[in-house]
Design a protein that fits this description.
This protein has 284 residues and is α/β, with parallel strands linked by helices. The chain contains eleven helices and twelve strands. The chain has a six-stranded parallel β-sheet with strand order 6-11-10-9-8-7. A four-stranded antiparallel β-sheet has the order 3-5-1-12, with helices on one face. A two-stranded antiparallel ribbon has the order 2-4. α9 links the parallel β9 and β10. α8 packs parallel to α9. The longest helix is centred in the middle third of the chain and has 32 residues.
């Protein structure tokens, strides 16, 4: 679910859930001051430098409340924005603009914050062979939006959910009895189209995973020097992924290890929002 078409097809139910969360039996504040239709306009203004993601979701919130709403967009999805920049002018029923404001901004601020944080790490990886990945550490019911935002910021998606790929983590290995047994069982029970990834925590596990024929070997919470040694042991027999407490502050230590991928849960669980406001609402 990382492309605009998939987002458009699947997003409506989650947007509706967000609106239902905020409006259970009516917007009483808006109904008090605006009891009937009045056409109005508001300005979407960015209050921080960053990368914009989620404009389509922002628009869809208002479209669900007012089929006549229109948007004069001044920025593009995935584009850079500056503090104070006018991003769009929204025109429609003032009641819809008031009632949908918070939900629309929640999506846009969250997604833009993730895109901005992702992009800052992507820039640190420029010139290296390492690709930045997200994880499943997402906000419940927000995964489709958050993983889309990672892509908008220049990152790449790991598996979308548990149905997407085989990843044998420590508890899977413990349940099977060993890495070798876990890989053998996975080969026997999963379609040939799926790659098998194995999580390892030390060099002995790395050796076993490589010998067992894992397609991808995750190096979990290993120090950089140990990761370098692990890459040598694997010697091209599998793709390599680094994981575990990866942040913008420490990712430079990983670049020289030679890993193919680095997965970073912070992209979705720790990115701050991008400050954006809907201001200057007035009747037209």
């Amino acid at each position: 679910m990382n492309d605009p078409v998939a987002l458009k097809i699947n997003a409506d139910r989650y947007i509706r859930m967000a609106l239902e969360e905020d409006i259970t039996s009516g917007d009483i504040s808006t109904n008090c001051v605006m009891p009937s239709y009045q056409k109005g306009q508001a300005e979407l203004i960015c209050k921080q430098d960053g990368i914009i993601a989620g404009l389509g979701v922002f628009k869809r919130v208002f479209e669900m409340l007012d089929s006549t709403v229109s948007f004069d967009m001044h920025v593009e999805e995935g584009g850079k924005v500056k503090n104070g920049e006018l991003m769009a002018v929204v025109t429609g029923d003032i009641r819809a603009l008031l009632s949908g404001e918070r939900t629309a901004l929640n999506f846009l601020q969250r997604m833009s914050g993730i895109a901005t944080y992702t992009n800052s790490i992507v820039q640190l990886l420029e010139g290296s062979k390492t690709t930045l990945l997200d994880t499943r550490k997402t906000t419940p019911n927000m995964r489709i939006f958050e993983k889309y935002a990672v892509k908008a910021g220049g990152g790449s998606n790991h598996r979308y959910n548990l149905s997407d790929g085989v990843m044998l983590k420590d508890n899977h290995i413990g349940a099977a009895g060993s890495i070798t047994k876990a890989v053998r069982m996975a080969r026997a029970n999963v379609s040939f189209v799926h790659k098998i990834e194995v999580e390892t925590e030390n060099l002995d596990m790395v050796r076993e995973a490589a010998e067992a024929g894992a397609d991808i070997i995750m190096l979990d919470n290993m120090p950089p020097e140990e990761m370098k040694e692990a890459v040598k042991i694997i010697d091209g027999r599998a793709l390599t992924e680094c994981s575990g407490n990866v942040t913008k502050e420490n990712i430079k230590n990983i670049i020289d290890t030679g890993v193919d991928f680095v997965s970073c849960g912070a992209l979705t669980h720790s990115a701050p929002i991008l400050d954006i406001s809907l201001k200057n609402l007035h009747a037209v």
